[in-house]
Amino acid sequence: MSRIPEELKYTKTHEWFSVDAGVATIGISDYAQQQLTDIVYIDMPKPGDDKKIGDVLLTIESVKSAEDVYSPVNGKVIEINMELEKSPELVNEDPYKNWIVKIKLDDEKYNFLTAEEYKKYIGE
C-alpha cells in the first residue's frame, strides 16, 4: 500500500505537489516510484524553463522503463534537486522528502486530486 500524505495535492499522472508563497514543489508519488522500481536516472529540466500544465517536465528512467513526469502547474523552473542528479535512487527511498523540481507559479490554475481522491483513483 502506498503512502499518500494528506497535505499534498496529486495528479492522475502520479505527480504530487505543494504550493507555498507562489512556488510549487513537485515530485512523484509513492505509488509511481513503486511502479517504476529502481530509479537510475532523472533527465532534469533546466532552471529558467517555462512549463505549462500538462507539459513534459522531466523523464525518469528505471531498470524497468522510462516515464515522463508532467507539470501540474504553469510557471518557470527555478530549482532542481541537485542531490537526485548524483543519487536518483533517493526518490525510491522517500519520494516525498526527495522532491524533484520547484516552479515559480505564473498563476494559481491547477487541477488536482486530494489525497482521498488519489487513494480512490489508484484503487487503495
Question: How many E strands?
Answer: 9
CATH superfamily: RNA polymerase II/Efflux pump adaptor protein, barrel-sandwich hybrid domain
At the first level of CATH, the class is: Mainly Beta
Rg calc: 13 Å
Distance between the termini: 7 Å
The average pLDDT is 97
What is the makeup of the main sheet? 6 strands, antiparallel
Individual helix count: 4
Structural class: alpha+beta
Report on the structure:
By secondary structure, the protein is α+β, with helices and mostly antiparallel strands. The chain has a single domain (9-106), classed as Beta Barrel (OB fold (Dihydrolipoamide Acetyltransferase, E2P)), CATH 2.40.50.100. 18% of the residues lie in helices and 35% in strands. The chain has four helices and nine strands. The protein has helices at residues 30-36, 83-86, 90-93, 115-121; strands at 9-10, 15-20, 23-28, 39-43, 50-51, 56-62, 66-70, 75-80, 101-105. The strands form two sheets. A six-stranded antiparallel β-sheet has the order 1-2-3-9-8-5. Strands 4-6-7 form a three-stranded antiparallel β-sheet. Strand 2 and strand 3 (23-28) form a beta hairpin. It is globular.
Task: Summarize it.
The chain has 124 residues and is an alpha+beta fold.
Task: Describe this protein with a few key phrases.
single chain, 124 residues, alpha+beta, OB fold (Dihydrolipoamide Acetyltransferase, E2P), 6-stranded antiparallel beta sheet, 3-stranded antiparallel beta sheet, 4 helices, 18% helix, globular
